[in-house]
Amino acid sequence: MTVTEAPARPNAAPEDRYYTYAYLDEQTKRMIRRAILKALAIPGYQVPFGSREMPVPYGWGTGGIQLTAAIIGPEDVYKCIDQGADDTTNAVSIRRFFATVADVATTEDTSEATIIQSRHRIPEQPLADGQIMVFQVPQPEPLRGLEPRETETRAMHAYAEYGLQYVSLYENISAYGRIAATAGYPVMIDERYLMSPSPIPKFDNPKMHMNPAILLFGAGREKRIYAVPPFTRVRSLDFEDYPFETQSWDEVCALCGANDSYLDEVVLDDKGQHMFVCSDSHYCADRREKGHAGPMAGHALAHIETEIAAEEV
Amino acid sequence: MNAPLNLAELRPGFSEPVGDSQSVFRALLTATAQPGTRVEVGKALAPPVGLNQAAAAVLLTLADQDTLVWLEPSLRGGAIESWLRFHTSCPLTDHAEEAAFAVVSHEGLAAQMLSGFNQGDAKYPDLATTVIVMMPDLEAGPNLVLEGPGIETIAEIAPQGLPESFWAERSDLVAHFQFGIDVMMCAEATLVSIPRTTRIQTKGE
Amino acid sequence: MAYVAVKGGERAITNAHTWLGEVRRGDTSVPELSVAQIREQMSLAVDRVMAEGSCYDPDLAALAIKQARGDLPEAIFLLRAYRTTLPRFGATTPIETANMAVQRRVSAAFKDIPGGQVLGPTFDYTHRLLDFKLAAEGGHEVPPAQVSEEIMPTQLATIAQVFAHEGLLEGDPVTDTSEQPYDLTREPMAFPADRDQRLQALARGDEGFLLSLAYSSQRGWGSTHPLCGEIRMGEVSVGFTPDELGFEIELADLPMTECIMLSGFAGSAEQAPQYTRGYGLTFGHNERKAMSMSIVDRALRGRELGEEGQAPCQDEEFVLYHSDVVEASGFVQHLKLPHYVDFQADLQFLRRLRREFFDAKAKALAEQTAHMKEAAE
Fold it and tell me: How many whole angstroms separate alpha carbon C253 and alpha carbon C240?
């Protein structure tokens, strides 16, 4: 995958130049930047911020978009994924937004990107020092499902009163024989703040621990920003006799044969036929390019991805 | 209210406010995410005497009408104050405990206890003051070893000119995490960020 | 194949939006609506969009309605997203509704009040019969309303002023202008919420949500026994004092609707019994919204008045966190974005639980069979 050239600002269409660089006004950027620095200083703590209406609806990435808009510069290389894939419609739409308003180069290649905005996944390829991962967060409060009141949950964080969360996990074990959370699995940051990792599958949780990249989380509708600095302890909650475990599959990726990636199930017909493919579209394409092949290599799905990618360039 | 600004001797701020504040912010982001990392900011600035380039760059990037700024008394009333008000529109405060940003020189620290700054609220620890400390050098002083979030193993810095009690004072404050202050140390155009999570050992010269 | 649709890509989005434009225009043999037509002839829709969009600009609101194909929450969203890009100069001086150039003013508390009942342009007492004259394209004349010979006083006493000498109704709260008002467009919701924050949230709040909450209160879910003290609609002068000038300048005369709802209060050891009030204010003409807002405002004053209430309309966090149509609409509709990664995680878990369930059943059955066999032998 190649990096597309950043379009020169003077050639931008007049209607695109109407808004300021990276869309947000400078005062809003400063407010968000201050919140980001405080978020890094208090890892896992949710900093309230004056979230603005964005030109996309709340729930569609407004938190992530505001974070990206506050940090991005013309030197950046921007990648945007949804469900792990670069070519999902909302990811395409957000990527196009920043290519237009921030004059940045975009990429699908995880290692080339300086900023990776994501909904629901952390890429398979390990992140590197200097990269910034921006997560879109629908519900920043890990305790919200247990306690609907913000006044209560804020007090729980203030005094590190996380008993309610442990009771709930314990009730899971009594009911199901294991902890039922499969995505958005709560984590403890540097042994102080309980944090929602956003609805990433718990498969991705271990990637956050001592990760070299900066992890920023933005919840636009709920108006919260939080962060995990690089090389910070991130522990998925568990019990000694019920240790944390991630998902695994009996299958491998049907297209690239990967046995170490998060797999999506693709239904092929209404008779129970299905195949499993990597959710991380770039990881899968990259492996196929390097000659790896899965049991259904050459399936139409692989062609669709390349075709779309070719069109976008 | 505020005295009228003396614009005749006003020094310029950023030459490209949008781009410059973005690049300075990215340096601050790196510095705060990885405490101990030296970043260069404000190299092109010529701030008024008494304010160094890095401190000036931080203020131009982060301060505005929504942030109360406390200046060490010796920095008040003159060119620094006019420059700051003109370029950032920030309101100034006489009360260190209500400041979002505080600017103090290493000499000024002798008269200002760190505990006098806002330590944050149990529910809103983000309200704590960011203290911008100006000093002559970040590598010529006693050696410090840094550990904590953002640091893979250890980081080392050697800020020069801080009062002897400084690190002990800070350590007392941040021992009550989530309370504490976040420090940005500035020497000329170099900056090191020390958020409240960083653990510091002062042993070894 | 569903999977292909999800992998739509840029061309699919562009095509979808082109199609949307076509559908918006509709049958091209029918003349296109102008923004001015919407502004003039769908003025109540324009008023609602301005009120919930937190932006007074009838032309932009009309444009938003046109662009949104008449979907008002979508139009409100468009106006908000535009509004947020505008620089903020500050807060206006508090408006004085007592000086409103009244077009309509009614009170249900008195048969007549000083200044009189003024019906104004209202749907009230119209018979809701479809008017087929309006279906005819043009041609019919709109008869002008008769102008009263009585001159309207420039100031109509407010309901609070009417009661003032007896202290039967709590007075108009005095706005502390030394403090900047809370501004939800710059700061997130915080609790407990003061009056300024609450009223701003309600003024921006979804009309339907507030209407239903007010209705629930009337039906006993946190009843405040409201009585409509006064509704007034008309133009109010809006002023602003720029820092650099130091004196107030008048910005505009804006049409607004205000409602004061009265509620009984038994009093306390320190305070004599008196009527308390709920307050509603919207841009333009919107009585349904202003009345609903005033009932909900009063219901939310429980903490301040020492009332214990558990009903939804009395719960500050419940009401204020869920009243914004842009937030609510966005989050409900975000469910149509792909969630297949989380779904896969759930599916896996569910399959495992089901497998264990059936394994356990099979095992129990096998044990039972073995046991019966043993017994038979």
Answer: 12
